[in-house]
Known about the structure:
By secondary structure, the chain is mainly beta.
Amino acid sequence: xxxxxxxxxxxxxxxxxxxxxxxxxxxxxxxxxxxxxxxxxxxxxxxxxxxxxxxxxxxxxxxxxxxxxxxxxxxxxxxxxxxxxxxxxxxxxxxxxxxxxxxxxxxxxxxxxxxxxxxxxxxxxxxxxxxxxxxxxxxxxxxxxxxxxxxxxxxxxxxxxxxxxxxxxxxxxxxxxxxxxxxxxxxxxxxxxxxxxxxxxxxxxxxxxxxxxxxxxxxxxxxxxxxxxxxxxxxxxxxxxxxxxxxxxxxxxxxxxxxxxxxxxxxxxxxxxxxxxxxxxxxxxxxxxxxxxxxxxxxxxxxxxxxxxxxxxxxxxxxxxxxxxxxxxxxxxxxxxxxxxxxxxxxxxxxxxxxxxxxxxxxxxxxxxxxxxxxxxxxxxxxxxxxxxxxxxxxxxxxxxxxxxxxxxxxxxxxxxxxxxxxxxxxxxxxxxxxxxxxxxxxxxxxxxxxxxxxxxxxxxxxxxxxxxxxxxxxxxxxxxxxxxxxxxxxxxxxxxxxxxxxxxxxxxxxxxxxxxxxxxxxxxxxxxxxxxxxxxxxxxxxxxxxxxxxxxxxxxxxxxxxxxxxxxxxxxxxxxxxxxxxxxxxxxxxxxxxxxxxxxxxxxxxxxxxxxxxxxxxxxxxxxxxxxxxxxxxxxx
Length: 638
């Protein structure tokens, strides 16, 4: 992958070439926008809305906000409002948002023409985090969240969660803080693709991802001259139904139609306004209008739009959303640190069970069932960890944890005593050169303990762990192979089966016994729809005689539950989203996961799914683990 600086340079070069090719037509009227016409309304912001087959107007001026139908006033609110935006909620209702510039207070209204009070104030909130330059709504059909971006001009933006799974929050919740250009002036969201567009004054327009758990990377859409075709400060953005963009330059006033590849297809001058800052759309089918207004509340300018007939862009299908009810303390270091969890069950007190988690920079952290870090073992760069029970060490009964140690390609062993205290029990050398994933196996047939450990080359080694009552030794007993890089694996002790995730391709099934054949079978393939590379964490769960395979699909920040026996039917596809009541953020970019169907104490009486969260937000801090009660997953299983 190219470094960010190289990517930026290539983006600028591409835009420059596109600018040369389209310069001859960029300043001439094209087929999308007509010449501007004056509307008989003076407003600083103006929207023309279609609700239940009727037309309504909402606008702001020096006295406040007003909603009307023709000459009939349906509602009004006094104040000095700016950055008015709206989002249809259903056929007969829309949500309005604006900022009171005198107090930097956010106002939210619901406009329902058929209601007893058509314009209803639903929320008012003083914004102290930043001076707001623009507002833009985002409704995620896939993740069933409605949020509002508050764009600041000094390098930051907040994403406020308003509604989740059709339930309005009592108080909006900041679910993400974004780093954006210092002089940001405008934003807009493509509701279908989830693209967030942000204008950096007169310098550039950038594309981000609007999903709160998405990667924060950005791509360049357009830049100023001489590399691009921006001329003035961009004060407003709007997304058209085909995914292309309208950008409004403040002075001299110019409306740009920008295609998805960044090319400016058309630019229309608006000479009737000395400067402009408001842009709104009204679109029905492939026809509509753009409305341009100014903070001086001059006469609104209208441009008729004729959109090309294109294939309908459908919103993404909703994915089942589950909420975490507990999270661990964050890793002490920022960045990609945590990887894989495992559970140690206390023999008599489920609430005293522990969660082990690898730190890819330092070692092993241990958490109690309240999410507090209670032990740290600085043994080196550990990747994956697993636990089994009943292996004598130092002449006393202990349990065993094994982890893959990247510093020297060895197995790091820990002995766990009856109180849950971990002890360094030494290392076992391997023949691997890039040690990676790991899981343990306890053979019902022989009573022996084994460790499966893999290498980025696709090699998998099986080590038997023996004890003389005092120390543990490891012996290589078998080697397996998958075609490309694996990581996550899990062994089914009851059935003698090993499952291995080949990250980009498939989940493989092998016999787990040391004397078994070494050939495997690819049982579940990456489909690019539900199971999207990388295949990361893999875990097993037993319930009422059924065995389930849980997999983290890192490529689309989701999880799948399959039958762990042929024909490996998919039973559930879900994501882990924000828990507003507990203030726990959603989960994304998961590496390792673990499942327990035994009690882990109050709140987890039937066990839990434990996942690594690659982006720990609310607030932004080091990675951590999130826990979902197993009961919540059982309720969703087909």
